Hints:
CATH class: Mainly Beta
Order of helices and strands: HEEEEEEEEEE
Largest sheet: 5 strands, antiparallel
Radius of gyration: 20 Å
Amino acid sequence: MRHFTIIAAAGALAACATTPSSQPSADFTRASAALFDSGGTQSADADLMENDDGIGVTIRAYGLTPGVHAVHIHETGNCDAYDFSSAAGHWNPLDREHGRESPGGQHMGDMPNLVIGQAGEGLIELTIEGARVSGGRTALLDEDGAAVVIHALPDDYRSQPSGAAGERIACGVVEPAGY
């Protein structure tokens, strides 16, 4: 019986040794998204990293029409529809009203407007306070993921449910990064 126990234990250890070590854990602290327009041209990238205050977000856009564009994180990690409607509504795990000027606080997916200069480039950096990349009530990477979406118009920070931001012109699925 003793030999069987040792062999079983050795087999269990060998099985563990063959498990790929590159598999990410259930808790991610970094994520990224490559945003594409409806024609399939990449027009922005987003980097998201958990910090002590929430999630730090950097979005770099290029090749977009000059002007002011709304940017939001949407609740579903799917950009398959031609108009990006498959990304669903804004990421809103705390069930708040839309808009930075909302008295009860904004959606976690609400962001400042992105200003695109004459060269077609723009940058925004912000922190989504209280958010997490994964794990917990405010997790960005939940069972259906998330997407970053750029809109044709600026967000007015008031109108419900989406700030009168117009059509969706670029979309990128948020994916775990750094593993």
